[in-house]
From TrEMBL:
InterPro entries: TMTC_O-mannosyltransferase (IPR052384), TPR-like_helical_dom_sf (IPR011990), TPR_rpt (IPR019734), UCP035836 (IPR014596)
UniProt name for this protein: Pilus assembly protein TadD
PANTHER family named among the record's database cross-references: PROTEIN O-MANNOSYL-TRANSFERASE TMTC2 (PTHR44216)
Keywords: TPR repeat
UniProt keyword Ribosomal protein, yes or no: no
TPR repeats mapped onto the chain: 139-172
Highest taxon of the lineage: Bacteria
Coiled coil start-end: none
Length: 265
């Protein structure tokens, strides 16, 4: 990677953001509506603070123990597990579900997400590609495959997939954000910001998209602007968590302090 983002360590540390903005588009969230509507949390899981996420994990876990073959429930449970850093447990839930529903596209896509979160990229690609129907390609799966390829260093094939996804779903914020992440991982922060801003301005953009925009703005040394973006439309607790996350990401490269202390022209 080039520029301020230099070094392979940053690519590894970007995996969590890549997954949240990319493959999450093909998996379910806490807003599952089929079969489990009464058990869904009151608001999207990506907007929950740590306490609410922990409560969701407990609630879903108790329900999952009673009926592990309930597809919407298992998908939602795996999602909240992943959001609380329990990738291995989320993968176990999804592996069991994939065995129970071996031909289900939604299950295979979410299984691919869990495999990628665990660093099993080849297996993740296989799961996502098996979920895809070449004659009627799913833009979410194209974006998911691109996100995995980006993490494997296959930049150009990944961007080709993102553009194919945008042909099917023009202006989709999660795909635009993934495209921006691809350029960010390559060190082209200006191009990355252009795509991220388009993503953040698109209808349906969520806090994960804005978090990615905040990160690329912060990497260019515009920290006050980055914090303003990260706090937008979030609870104070979630906004503060985002700020701390941004600082932690940048601190891995020691770029926060180096850029913040740089004399302004």
């Amino acid at each position: 990677m080039r520029g301020v983002c230099g070094g392979g360590r940053f690519i590894s540390s970007m995996t969590a953001i890549m997954l949240s903005a990319g493959i999450a588009g093909c998996a379910t969230t806490g807003r599952t509506t089929t079969g489990s509507i009464a058990r869904s949390p009151a608001r999207p899981v990506e907007q929950m603070n740590n306490l609410e996420l922990a409560q969701a994990v407990r609630s879903y876990g108790l329900q999952y123990q009673k009926n592990p073959r309930d597809k919407p429930l298992a998908l939602a449970y795996a999602n909240v597990l992943a959001m609380t850093g329990r990738s291995d447990q989320a993968l176990a839930v999804m592996r069991a579900l994939a065995i129970a529903y071996p031909q289900d596209r939604q299950v295979l896509a979410a299984y691919g997400k869990s495999l990628a979160s665990a660093g099993q990229f080849e297996a993740a690609l296989d799961a996502v590609r098996r979920a895809q129907t070449p004659a009627y390609p799913d833009w979410k799966l194209l974006s998911a495959e691109g996100a995995i390829l980006d993490q494997m260093g296959d930049t150009e094939p990944a961007r080709t997939l993102y553009r194919r996804a945008l042909e099917i779903q023009p202006g989709e914020p999660s795909v635009l954000s993934n495209l921006g992440i691809s350029y960010m991982l390559a060190g082209d922060l200006k191009t990355a910001e252009t795509h991220m801003r388009n993503a953040a301005a698109a209808p349906g953009a969520d806090s994960r998209v804005r978090q990615n925009l905040a990160l690329v703005v912060g990497l260019q040394g515009r920290f006050q602007e980055a914090e303003t973006i990260a706090r937008r439309e979030l609870s104070p607790q979630q906004a503060e968590a985002n700020i701390q996350y941004l600082r932690a990401m940048l601190a891995q490269q020691n770029s926060w302090n180096m850029l913040k202390d740089k004399p302004k022209s």
